[in-house]
Amino acid sequence: MPDSLRECSIMPVIDVDGPGPVVLISDVRVTAIPVAECGEPLRDVREVLRVDRRLADPDGAFAHLREGLLERLGEADRRLPSGVHLVVVEGYRPPVLQTRYFEEYKDELRGLFPEMSAQQLHTAASRYVSPIEVAPHTAGAAVDLTLCDDDGVELDMGTAVNATPEQSDGACYTASPLIGAEARRNRETMRAALEPAGLVNYPTEWWHWSYGDRYWAMTTGADAAIYGPVTL
After folding, report:
1. Helix, strand, or coil (residue 27)
2. Can you give the pTM of this predicted structure?
3. For residue 188, which phi and psi values (nearest 5 degrees)?
4. What pLDDT, in 10s, does the model give residues 223-232?
């Protein structure tokens, strides 16, 4: 594992070859932000956007998001160049599934780095999966996205959606220098559509964008998150 990745595995604030430090979602600057739940309902994204079924669940939870976030995604999709479209891979995630993802990844890291303390493992795991207490997917406030062409063929984004830092050698980081020119352009195309619509990116995952959660509040300077955990 490169030194930069070993460092980011154990540090709450890290430099990832980008313009500044990355604040992880487990950082107290995120977890201390209050939630002022606005009560918006979850909506089915299939009414508005293209959806990939690789992470589909029997209840269709993966294809739901808060109404305000979905409206912003529709706006972003219309902002994309002709022939390019947003594809939703996963939106809402039930708490039990979120907990399972986090614990499984933490167990994987424990096997790779047995010298890590419990707190270091918790922090390192939060690079890739949010701890349940702040997880934006369980609030319907986060969405994992990629891009496709008119025929539904996914564009080159540098890594697969949900590639771990270990699997991708750090190329999953949004600002990673380890990707090709085409992938870099496609990531910039996504950013240029989503940021003006009010979404923020989690810098360790190019595919992860959110609105209304604690990480969004920390990034934008909002006093509180507007979306907390919700039941489908």
Report:
1. coil
2. 0.87
3. -65, -40
4. 999 999 999 8
